[in-house]
Amino acid sequence: MKSPSGSFRPVGTQRVCVALLTVITLASSAFAQTFSSGDKAKVQGTITSRKGDLIKIQDAKTGSPALIKITDDTKILRDKSKVAFKRHEDMDVTAMVPGLTIKVEGVGNADNQLEASKITFSPDAFAIEVAQQQEINANKSAAAGAQTTANQGVSAAGAAQSSANQAQTTADAAGTVAAAAGSVAMMNAGAVEMVNKRVSDLDDYQTVAEAVIYYPTGKYALDDAAKADLDKLVALTSSTDGYLIEIAGYASKTGTKEVNQQLSEDRASAVANYLRNKGNIPLRRIVAPAGYGSTHPDAENTDPQGRELNRRVDVKLIVNKGLQGTM
User: Fold this and answer.
1) How many CA atoms does the CB half-sphere of 50 hold within 13 Å?
2) Which of 36, 83, 205, 327 has the fewest CB atoms within 10 Å, counting from its CB?
3) What is the model's pTM?
4) Residues contacting 225, CB < 8 A, separation 6+
5) Degrees (nearest 5) of the Cα angle 49, 9, 289?
6) In whole angstroms, what is the distance from residue 287 CA to residue 269 CA?
7) Residue 150 CB coordination number (10 Å)
8) CA torsion sign, 238 to 118 to 105 to 64?
9) Minimal CA–CA distance to 66: which of 93, 48, 40?
10) CA distance linking residue 88 with residue 274, whole number of Å
11) pLDDT tens digits, residue range 130-162?
12) Burial of 213 from C-beta contacts in 10 A (0-12 / 13-18 / 19+)
């Protein structure tokens, strides 16, 4: 069983350093939209990937990719909305993750990127909700099971021609169940995959190092061991080109759903604030620090040791693997 005293570890070798060797810029992507230096422009599109301060979007009008650069002067604002979007209200810049639709105003720079002066997004279109991953997995499992039944039915039809009609009927029925279950799984997954499917879970991202911060029951303050682990992660950022930091807070199932949700958010926020204020990590390099309540447990919640492991924040230093070539 893992120790709940906190942990930090680099992941694999520093393969990210290879990115320093490439001379191919993101703007060289085939068919990418370019912006002339000094010219003002406005674009709207959905974020498809990120590298540090650079965001790649798919332009809603042209369908072509465009590269947006975020700076310290970029203002990131929410459109007025009906959705309650209270999590980390001072951290709008951290919401710039794949799947989010944004409107950008800015000026072209020397690299033919659009250097953003203002970015707006709507929480109505992109509210961060708690992941219901267990339900998604259950639906996917049901779909897989039904498909297996369908395959068995088809196999039986081929093996025993005399009962082919009956077997095919069974296969068709199972196939219908599989399709229905698959549709449910897709709908549920589509509702949460934008943010709740954590960024580092996406195929485009590679984890360079990670720290796991553990907490006593009901607490979210960082102790000295937690700060030391975060300091180690911060030290790696200076040698990691185009890095992002992902923060996900969790709680054990010792309180109500609402209490666990708030506690997990407070833990994620405490880590983000430490990285920003003590580690001097630009807020734009932190992606959606979010609390996920008691979802995604690392251990069973049936004993004290398991609950201790689930009261945690996962902190990952990540890079976009595609950036060794193009985004």
Assistant:
1) 26
2) 36
3) 0.67
4) 5, 6
5) 45
6) 12
7) 20
8) positive
9) 48
10) 14
11) 333 333 344 445 555 555 655 665 555 455 455
12) buried
H or E element in which residue 232 lies = helix 224-237
* Residue 61: both structure tokens together: 């009008």
Distance of alpha carbon 299 from alpha carbon 305, whole angstroms? 8
What is the chain's Cα-based Rg? 23
B/e letters for 243-268, b = 16+ CB within 10 Å, e = fewer, are bbbbbbbbbbbbbeeeebbbbbbbbb
The rounded distance, in Å, linking the Cα atoms of 163 and 42 is 65
The strand pairing partners of 279, in sequence order, are none
Distances (CA, A) of 14 to 21, 52, 145, 229, 275: 13, 17, 40, 18, 21
Nearest to 250 by CA among 290, 222, 193: 290
pLDDT tens by residue, 284-311: 999 888 888 888 888 888 888 889 999 9
Bridge partners of 291? 249
